[in-house]
Batch of 2 targets.
Target 1
Amino acid sequence: MDDITIPESELVERFVRASGAGGQNINKVATAVELRFDIAQSPTLDEAVRERLLARRDRRVTGDGVIVIQAQRFRTQDRNRQDARDRLMVFIAHGMHVPKPRKATRPTRGSKERRLESKRGRSEIKRGRTGKDWD
């Protein structure tokens, strides 16, 4: 997370009224923050990180490659703003993590034998349920 610094010019913040309980304060003051960051067009992110972030199946990322984070957890605009930025940094940190490539492995002989033995046992149980002597 220390490697990347996103300039203010790439972040778009919009302050809106929060939903939920809160009485007059929530009806009068726009404390909720909607933070937008264009992943697809950002010159700050390198290509590998951008690909990993766009490949994630996240409902916050639009079809155009813009992540939209809505923060309305706190009562003040500043705390919601910081919360949205923290959540953006966590999202980007996930993209910076390079997953280990999977090594193809085969099941062991013992595991194959145990699987087949359990299948035979289940088959015997089911075969035992069919009654042919109806006398």
Target 2
Amino acid sequence: MSAEAVSSPGRLVDRIPTLDGAEMIAHLVPPRQFATATLDSYRPDRDYPSQGASVAAIRNFVAGWHSGRGGGFFSRRKTPVGLPGIYLDGGFGVGKTHLLAALWHAAPGRIYFGTFIEYTALVGALGYAPAVKLFTGASLICIDEFELDDPGDTRLMSRLLNQLASSGTRIAATSNTPPNALGEGRFAAQDFLREIDSLAARFTTIRVDGLDYRRRDVEAHAVTSTDAAAGISVIPGESTLDSFDEMLVHLGSVHPSRYVKIVEGLAVIGLTGVHPFANQTDALRFVAFVDRLYDAQVRIVAEGTPLDGVFPDEMLAGGYRKKYLRAVSRLIALTNGVD
């Protein structure tokens, strides 16, 4: 076994990140597993024709972009470019992020890619006016996991996007529909279009059906360990080992916009004493942290309650259900070691 594999782990709680506005915006790129994503590399499931149709819709969006150069994407004059916004609605793990990243790679100009949480965290950390200044002039803003469960954040993003759109920025967004949601994507899409107000008429809505690919070839539960320290020692790369409670306290002391720096350079984290959440604040911080772990493909080795069981039923039945179900899907993948 290499020296790297057996080196002593660090601690998440010792990672005190700092991040200024320029650094925050520099991190707004697709996660590393989508660094080379293209429409050709997307593998649609033939059992779900909407996946192939979504690829065609993205191709049309890109083609309309190039054919409309010079007139401004939000120009009032009629051009053959189609609607300047696109919204992908569907369940977990059907490839919406891959499609969004493929669009990002195909787009010209100054472009940004981030989750809804990343954008709202950035605005919260910098302030609204500085954030607008940073994004003004962008040709495309990609928003993964657009969320409607916090009215304040939704209105904030709607205001920001309206202001950017008025200057010619194109918008692309995705959202998740829980597998057992009434009405599937139809209600999710209607909610999205209603909440973004005047931007709604500018969006083409695309439904993407399918199964969660993260659960296709692995056990549909988070893997637990009897010895997290031993578990992380056999995974090469930089590692940390913390108690679940200490990690939660640390996350509470760091602005979510800086979580990306906490996970930077890590290959695996170990957690001991995992237990169900007792309050929603800790749960929501953990969801934001899981998103950053998933983007960086950081493995998790955990002792205690399986990580797909840390969100109590009353939380899963509440207004943040989408967030928690997305986190569960990702925790299953990260503990199984699946990209």
